[in-house]
Amino acid sequence: MTISAEELDAIRDSVRALCTQFPGTYWRELDQNREYPTAFVTALTESGFLGALIPEEYGGSGLGLRAACAILEEIHKNGCNAGAAHAQMYTMGTVLKHGSPTQKKEWLPKIASGEIRLQAFGVTEPTSGSDTMSLSTTAVRQGDHYVINGQKIWTSRAEHSDYMLLLARTTPKEDVKKKGEGLSVFMLDMRGAKGLTIRPIRTMMNHATTEVFFDNVTVPAANMIGEEGQGFRYILGSMNAERTLIGAECLGDAQWFINKATAYANERKVFGRLIGQNQGVAFPLARAYAQYRAAALMIQRSAEMFDAGEKNAEEANIGKMLASEASWAAAEVCVQVHGGFAFAEEFDIERKFREARLYQVAPISTNLILSYVAEHVLGLPRSY
Ligand SMILES: Cc1cc2nc3c(=O)[nH]c(=O)nc-3n(C[C@H](O)[C@H](O)[C@H](O)COP(=O)(O)OP(=O)(O)OC[C@H]3O[C@@H](n4cnc5c(N)ncnc54)[C@H](O)[C@@H]3O)c2cc1C
Asked: How far is the centre of ligand 1, averaged over its atoms, from the C-alpha of 129 (Å)?
């Protein structure tokens, strides 16, 4: 799927128009009360933006990853936060790629329209952390159902989702024949599910994240995606899109911080001159901008390769790392340029600063990206 620069500009214009309805005051109030941005997510859903990666035959717009990146980047560039909704965009990738024709027909149109909220992605567990292959939540087959027991952590948006894409162990780790096997993916309908407990975790920023406990929760065998035991591979396959999209959000944040800081440096006068006239203020801003531009090229490349059906793991990983570092560098500069005012809530900088820090940890930490590059790109020995 190729999309023209004009089409991308038009998408950005519409996203920007939508974002103007959700100014800083809206996000600040939610942040203070740790509330979910329901009105924003509804507006995004109704606009059809969240169906950008779903093919037209299933009711989406089939615009591809470049367009999806433009949407998320623009949201963040305009001071909003797509973290409350972005999973609706990419979590369905596993269903699209590995689901049966019946599953795709059943779920994808409803995900595209927002009738089904697929916002929850249950992978991380408290004991296994980044070592996904060691996760211990089990799914045991009993007749035409699987019975789930265990716990997930950091399952974001679980309280605001109808389904969870769940990764669980169907074969004990010691019995698997090949490394990476033994885990399976399920579409778990959480609405009224017996034995499911969701507990919110209050975090540094307003992220609607939770821990989820499974006590004999049943899921129909028909809701398993693809083959039993192959789930880890499926989830890994969808992560390149996720990393590229998160990278795009970071690029949006970087621009928000840089724009805000540049405007301030051009108007704030101290010692009788604009602070931006001091190279000690201007150079860190110029450096942050250069970092953002370089990261943007890698994210763009990653999205183009994905849309062309090429393998983009290297670009997705590196792009996400560079973009998360660029947004953090820009956040740092923005604080420094604003001096004391950066700490006042009404400037939105302290909120965006807290939000921007996440992306060097989740959805994958920088060290794990470096491990990927060291091992799979440079051919160095595996470190773990
Ligand atoms: C707000 C938030 C939302 C999240 N949302 C979701 C979600 O919706 N669904 C989901 O499944 N998960 C989610 N996560 C989880 C997230 O993906 C993990 O936090 C992340 O992958 C890191 O795992 P961990 O926290 O267990 O850290 P750990 O794996 O415990 O790692 C801790 C530190 O040690 C480093 N480290 C570990 N092993 C190595 C190694 N071999 N070499 C070098 N360094 C190493 C890591 O890089 C990290 O810095 C979320 C997390 C947060 C904080």
From this structure: 6
* Digit-coded pLDDT (tens) for 66-103: 999 999 999 999 999 999 999 999 999 999 999 999 99
What CATH number has the domain spanning 233-377?
1.20.140.10
Domain with CATH 2.40.110.10 in the chain: 120-229
Mean pLDDT of the chain: 97
pLDDT digits (tens, 9 = 90+) for 195-243: 999 999 999 999 999 999 999 999 999 999 999 999 999 999 999 999 9
**What are the respective helix, strand and coil percentages of the chain, to the nearest 5?**
55, 15, 30
Pocket test for ligand 1, best of 31, 121, 154 (most atoms within 8 A of CB): 154
Dump pLDDT digits (tens) for 18-29.
999 999 999 999
CATH 1.20.140.10 residue window(s) in the chain: 233-377
Give the single-character DSSP code of 1.
-
3 state DSSP class of 304: helix
